[in-house]
Amino acid sequence: MNNRFFVFLFCLAVICFFSYSCEKDDICASGTPDTPQLIIRFFDSTDIETLKPVPSLRIVAVREDTSVFFENEDRTDRDSIALPLRTQQLTTRYLLINNSEDEDNIEQGQIDTLDITYTKSDQFISRACGFRAVFELTEVSSPDTEKWIAGNPAIEIVNTTVENENAAHVKIFH
Fold it and tell me: pTM to 2 decimals?
């Protein structure tokens, strides 16, 4: 009888140990932060504190081989936009097209190129959620600012660390 009691006690201890040593939930909660997007705000180049919407803004992200990997659907007037950064590269290039209303013609409107250079670090969230990328901006530039992006400076980095989407990271003047 004593042996059975000790075997039962041992089994109970093993079950309790393994049930409390595992994570209770392997589901990633909906409020868990994921890889943040770059927040860009557009300002008036003559009054640098005033937000100025870009009319019919179209954003197209291109790879080195000029293939498109991101394009915004909504071409409304907007004074800010959230853009994804490439996690497998350390640069992302966007075409910012002002006054773009034609769905098929990328050449319609004024096109400025935006080159974003950054470093990336991976941040562990949890076993269920995995990792997320956090970016450190090193440079945001436009090689052809004679189109509609203008001002001195034409582009300003206001927050170099892209780890959340609560505030703007870059200001663009036009």
Answer: 0.77
